[in-house]
User: What shape does this take?
Amino acid sequence: MKKQGRGTERKTAIKKESTAVKLIADRSIELNNISLTILNAGPAHLSSHHVTLAISQVSRAIFLNKQEPSYYINRAEGYLLANDYESCISNLKKAQLLLPPRKSMKSTLPDAMPGACWKGVITANENEEDRDLFYARDKFEACASSSVWLNLKFRRIYFTFGQILLDQRRLYESLKYFKLARDFGMCTSSVYLRMVAIYIGLHKTDEALELLYNLIEKHPKNADLYILRAKLYSELGHVDLVSMDLNKVAILNPQHPEMRQLMEYVIWTSIKYKNKASAQILKGQFDVAVFFLNHALELDPTDWITLLKRGVIFSEMGHYESAIADLKGVLEMDDRDRERDAEVKSYVGSVYNKLGVDLFLNKNLDEAVNTFKKAIQFTSTEAIIFKNLADCYWFLDDDNNREKCLYRAYQLNPTDDETREKLAELYFSRGERGVFAGHFANGLRELSKAIDLSPNANYIFERGRVNLLTEQLDAAREDLSIVLKMNPNHREASAMFDQLVSKS
Assistant: This one.
């Protein structure tokens, strides 16, 4: 009887316990539904009193059933309406912990989450494609027990709370929540822009620039991003990088309202560099001058005057290839002063001439010839270039081309005694070879050319001797007479002249 009585008592106790659990569950659901009824009325019909009442009702439901995640979500909604973001986040995190793992969520959802708010909940898995999620794969496992709905909720709350903190200038706290919003897949560009503003406010320029690089990579046609980065560069004094970004803005949006001020900064800095370069040129410090001119050209690559100046300095320093590149670059610029083209071409020809002289001295005769020819293409009025080219032909035993070059040099500068003597010597040598070969007429003609250029005694004597050999006695007598007037002690001329007198 005692055993039977104990069994009856146990059944009665279990029944009472079951009844109590059911009563508690029903009461918690009732309280939760009251809260939902209030919250579902919509923000337009909710006062702060109604929100507080809804929170208190769902809090009582949680007191009765602490393992129901939907209650925490409902309370989070209430805190959200009350603008208590920290409490909202805390409740959502609690709900996230109580949710079953993703793999078992579908099987447990109907039993685990009673309540109207869960009717529209969907589960998340790694293969879902939702354009509004922007999940990063490395962040996906961090949210392994949450639903898509919770993730969306988290990122929006983090973003909103971060913006509120940013408006209050609570920068460190704001940065924390923006990072969380980013990690939960909030629109990257929107989050990054705010993080850039925070890093700037915290004087963390490197971090701000890194984010701007990422943003510009994703939005390469957004002129505002280039302007923002240019402003940061200007604060750091990187005027060359400012110029690069402004060049991009000039293509994307030439009328950007903030471009003018930044461009003025670039222009004034460029002027400073040019002035410093001029001061160094006066001191003879060409390498330092080139340093400043390089910076000026980085800021304004279309400044042909600065490019011309650098080309001339390179020429003075012996950097001929660099000088030629700069000077030719000037001639390719559309906005140059075309009235100065002749001057620039003269500079190019001068540099080619210097380069040709170096090649000649190093016995690179063929290269020297080609280089002097290039010089002539740019300036055909410089006698020195033709003289140098003639010297190359002399070493190459090319008398015809040597004669042409010397004759052109003599035409350009008739007062140059050296050119005249070289040309006369060439004619004299050619005349001697003609006479030796028995071509007396050609020989006399070449000798006469030499005498016309340089009437010295040796040339005239040689012509007189040839005239005597060809029995042109009057011409021979005249030449020998001139030689004796120039040099009375000339023995050969005196002997020949006496011979002519005795014949007559």
In short: Residues 175 and 195 are 6 Å apart (CA to CA). Confidence is low (pLDDT under 50) at residues 103-145.
